Amino acid sequence: MASAATTAAPRQSILRSDAAQKLLAFGALILIFAFFSFASPVFFTWENIKGILLATAVNGILALGVTFIIITAGIDLSVGTVMTLCAVMTGVAITNLGLPIPVGILVSLLTGIAAGSVNGFFISRMGIPPFIATLGMMMMARGLALVISGVKPIYFNDAPGFRNLTMGTLVADIPNAVIILFVAAIIAAFILGKTVLGRYAVAMGSNEEATRLSGVNVANWKTAVYALGGFFSGLAGVVIASRLNSAQPALGMGYELDAIAAVVIGGTSLSGGQGTILGTVIGAFIISTLTNGLRILSVPQEWQMVVTGAIVILAVYLDIVRRRRQ
């Protein structure tokens, strides 16, 4: 009985810590939103809020995939440029080859999955550190996007339905891109909380060696996690291409930093083994709201980066303090 009670106590402590982290992130979002609402009359308008929602859609979808990867104690620096490569492949399929829009979307998703699988292979089979493997993929994806596109944007003018995919509205005046984000978040939460992949991702991040000794094929499951991250990069590629009505081959650098920042701010531990999809979505909204508000107040972009970086450092420090207490 004593052993069971001892085991239950740390588990309850972790659950309380997760809940506190999500409440802290949500409280921070409310405070940021309230501050900018009082600071500028332009901020609390539907058009501006809709802009925040649209900005969150791309970063939030990318962050969903990064959440799984960081939970395994990994990292992926390639999500931004892989997203760009996926957008370019969609442009090639729909505009250059004249394929139907659903086929172009499938091409983007498969491209993302392939890039993520390659990352997983390099990391799990070849033993290359995640930072180096995904850094290499980041440069390869950027180069391939430029080569395949001929260093020129690919426009979807001949496929007007493609832009409506994200900029149209199925629910009230909410852009479809936002609906896609929330549907993707629900799917990601289900995968993390209710499937074998999600359980193994948490197990690998908590103690990879113990997971391996328990009979789990860590290499295969880790590759699957990175492939899932690639899937969300492919989905983000479709969303950003549809929103811009073009595939911009030079786009993508820096998106990975915002995605990682959203995941960390949302409470996912860089040490692995702990994280939630809800926290990541809140973190993505914090990044977008903060960037939007600072822009409205005419804060220079370099200072916007300083503020975001300081918030990320604070979030990581709070995670360190929380783990020490546990």
Taking the sheet with the most strands, its summary is: 2 strands, antiparallel
Strand fraction equals under 5%
The low-confidence parts are: 1-11
Record field, number of beta strands: 4
Q: Based on Cα principal axes, name the global outline.
A: globular
Number of domains: 1
**Which CATH architecture would you pick?**
Orthogonal Bundle
Radius of gyration: 20 Å
CATH topology: ABC transporter involved in vitamin B12 uptake, BtuC
Average pLDDT across residues? 89
List the helices and strands and how they pair.
Elements: H1 2-39, H2 46-71, H3 79-96, H4 101-124, H5 130-149, E1 154-155, H6 160-167, E2 169-171, E3 174-175, H7 176-194, H8 196-206, H9 208-213, H10 218-244, E4 246-247, H11 255-265, H12 277-296, H13 301-325
Antiparallel strand pairs: 1-4, 2-3
Helix pairs in contact: 1-12, 2-7, 2-8, 2-10, 2-11, 2-12, 3-4, 3-5, 3-10, 4-5, 4-10, 6-7, 6-10, 7-8, 8-10, 11-12, 11-13
